[in-house]
């Protein structure tokens, strides 16, 4: 569970890495049955994702370093950090399976809601472990 939560936090750290101002990352454990099934919510004030980026996230083994037509794909100057045991070095999901493994380790479905910083559109992706 700790590594799954670390992966979700790592994704938020990546999403908020280029914002100006204060980063905001919240982790909420929701157990109120009146609101639906128990859930883990990770909320950040990152740059958001377009519908294409959300769909790309849902593709197994599609690394953020190999996505086509995505602003995340230009990592020509990327130098992989030295491995540091049990640390958040923003390199956990290098092979494109981290976020998906994390959400499906924690639960049976994922719901992502995102609004790109430069857009008024809000995008939502719902993915079940069974469908994935």
Automatic annotation (TrEMBL):
Transmembrane segments: none annotated. One of its GO terms (biological process) is double-strand break repair. InterPro entries: HATPase_C_sf, SMCHD1. It holds the Pfam family HATPase_c_3. It comes from the Eukaryota. This is SMHD1 protein. It comes from Calonectris borealis (Cory's shearwater). The lineage of its organism: Eukaryota, Metazoa, Chordata, Craniata, Vertebrata.
């Amino acid at each position: 569970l700790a590594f799954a939560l670390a992966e979700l936090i790592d994704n938020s750290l990546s999403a908020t890495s280029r914002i100006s101002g204060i980063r905001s990352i919240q982790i909420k454990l929701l157990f109120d049955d009146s609101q639906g099934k128990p859930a883990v919510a990770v909320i950040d004030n990152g740059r958001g994702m377009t519908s294409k980026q959300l769909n790309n996230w849902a593709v197994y083994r599609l690394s953020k370093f190999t996505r086509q037509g995505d602003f995340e794909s230009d990592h020509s100057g990327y130098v992989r950090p030295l491995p540091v045991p049990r640390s958040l070095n923003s390199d956990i999901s290098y092979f494109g399976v981290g976020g998906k493994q994390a959400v499906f380790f924690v639960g049976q479905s994922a719901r992502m809601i995102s609004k790109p910083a430069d857009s008024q559109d809000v995008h939502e992706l719902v993915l079940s472990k069974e469908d994935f």
